[in-house]
Amino acid sequence: MTAPAPFALLAELTHRCPLACPYCSNPLELDRKADELATADWIRVFEQAAALGILQLHLSGGEPAARHDLVELVAAAAQLGLYTNLITSGIGLDKARLSELAQAGLDHVQLSVQDVGAANADRIAGLRGSHQRKRDFAAWVIDAGLPLTVNAVLHRGNIASMSALVDEVIAMGAGRVELAHAQYYGWAARNREALMPDLADALAAREQLPALRERTARDITIDYVPPDHFARYPKPCMNGWGRQSLNVTPRGLVLPCHAAQSIPGLSFWSVREHALDEIWHGSPAFAAFRGTDWMVEPCRSCDRREIDFGGCRCQAMALTGDARNTDPVCVLSPFHDRVEQLTTAPRHDSYVMRGRPPRTPDRTLSPPERDDADDVEAQRPAPAR
Amino acid sequence: MITADSRPKLARGVRLQIDRVRGGFNLLAPEHVLRVNASSAAILELCDGQRSLADIVDVLASRYAVDRGRIEREASALIDDLVTRRLVERP
Ligand code: SF4
Ligand code: SF4
C-alpha cells in the first residue's frame, strides 16, 4: 500500500532529561548519550524529511537542550523551511541560548508545566526549583518574540487545579495551552494508579471545560485531550498508523508512533542504514498497521474504522496481549472489562520516579537530589499529540 | 467581521509557505497545517498588518482581471474564517 507524504516528524534528540515526571511516556529502557545520532546524522534526516514532504519538525526528547548542537540543528531545519517547534522542560536553556535559537529561525516553543503551585509542580517534576525556572523561561520566550504553548499533563495530582492552571499559563504569556490527560505508555504505566483520576474528577473536568474556554477565550486557545479510559470509543491512533507522521528515536530508529517499541515483533529501520523515504514506504513497522486490512473484529466490519482506526495499537498490546485487537477502551471490544478494571482500581498518590528503583506505594515522595542534567537517566513526558 | 479598514496579518507563529512536494501552499502553525490554494495564498501574502483590506483588494483587482466585489467577498470570507481559527489577526 502506498502512503501519502507525511506532515510531521518528531525528533527525539536525546533521552537525557533533568526532570523525572511520573507520567513520562518514553520507554523503560532509555537510549544512552553514546548511542545518540551525531549532528550530521540529524541534519541529513531533516533534509530527507523536507524532501519527503514533512512540514513540521518537533524537537523533543528527553530535554532537547541537553544536546550541545541544538542551535545548529534548529538553524539547519529552519533553512530547509521546516516549521520548527521546540518541546522543552525549560530547564537547561538560558536566556542567551534561547535568543540564539530564535535567531536561528525557531518558530515556536512548547513548554511543559506540571501544576500551578511550585510545591506540587516541583514534586511532580521531581526537581526542586523547576517551576520557578519555568516561569522565568516563559518570560524569556516572550521577550525573544517567540510564540509559546504550554503543555500540561493532567492527572490525579493536578486535575483539581485545571482552571487555575489555565490562569497561570495566561499570566506566563502563552497563546495556547494543551491540557492533555496522562496516557499510560512507557514509564507512565508504572504509575497508573497514582495518575489516573477518579471518574468523578474526570467528569468534573470535562464539564468545567466549556465555561473555562468561554471565560478565557480572549486570552488563550485551549486544546483538551480527554482521558480515553473513560470514553466510549478510543482516540484515533496518530490519525492513522503510518499516515501522517513519524518519530525518530535518539539512536535513529524510525517509529510510526512514540510508544511503538512496546509492540513485540515489529522491526524498526534506522536512519543510519536507510533513507527516510525508504523507511516511510518500505519499513515493515509502518506497513504493519497501515490502513484497515490488518484489523480483526469488531473493528474490521465497524463503521468507525476510518474514524478511530481501531484506537491505539500500543494499548491493545498492553491490555490484550495482541496489538491487532480492538483498543480495549472501545465499548465494543471483548476486552473492555480490562479497562473497567483499571478505572475502578484502588488509587494511591505516590510515584515511582524515573531513574530510581521502584518504591513501595505507601512511601512518601521526596524530590530526587541531582544536579547533573547531562548524565541523569530521567525523563520528561513526550508531548501529547 | 472584517471591515475595509482592518489591517489583517498572520498570527504570531504562523507562516505561509509554498509546498514543493504536494503543490499549493500551507499555512503552518504550531500543531497545525492548513492547506491553502493559490488564490487564498495570494490574499494571505498581502496580509502584512500594514495594508488594509481595501488596499489588499485593490492590489488583487489590478493584478487579476476579476471583479472587485468578488475579490472582496472572497478575501473577507477567508480572513474571517482564519481569524476564527486564530491563524490571522486583525488588530
Ligand atoms: S470497534 Fe474498532 S473501529 Fe469500531 S469503534 Fe471500536 S475501536 Fe473503533
Ligand atoms: S499506537 Fe497508541 S500510542 Fe501509538 S500512536 Fe497510536 S494511539 Fe498513540
Written account of the structure:
The complex is a heterodimer of chains A (385) and B (91). With 385 residues, chain A is of the alpha/beta class. Chain A has helices at 39-52, 70-79, 95-104, 118-125, 130-143, 162-172, 192-195, 199-216, 276-282, 284-288, 313-320, 336-344; strands at 8-12, 56-60, 83-88, 108-112, 148-154, 176-181, 221-225, 245-248, 254-255. Chain A has a 9-stranded mixed β-sheet with strand order 7-6-5-4-3-2-1-8-9, with helices on one face. In chain A, helix 1 packs parallel to helix 2. The two termini of chain A are 25 Å apart. Residues 356-385 of chain A have low confidence and may be disordered. Chain B has 91 residues and is an alpha+beta fold. Chain B has a single domain, classed as Coenzyme PQQ synthesis protein D (PqqD) (Arc Repressor Mutant, subunit A). In chain B, the strands form 2 sheets. A 3-stranded antiparallel β-sheet of chain B has the order 2-3-4. A two-stranded antiparallel ribbon of chain B has the order 1-5. Classes of the chains: A alpha/beta (385), B alpha+beta (91). The structure holds iron/sulfur cluster (2 copies).
Question: Could you provide a short overview of the structure?
Answer:
The complex is a heterodimer of chains A (385) and B (91). Chain A has 385 residues and is an alpha/beta fold.
Q: Which architecture of chain B per CATH?
A: Orthogonal Bundle
Secondary-structure-based class of chain A equals alpha/beta
Q: What is the global morphology of chain A?
A: globular
Neighbour order of strands in the largest sheet of chain A: 7-6-5-4-3-2-1-8-9
Radius of gyration of chain A, in Å, reads: 20 Å
Distance between the termini of chain A: 25 Å
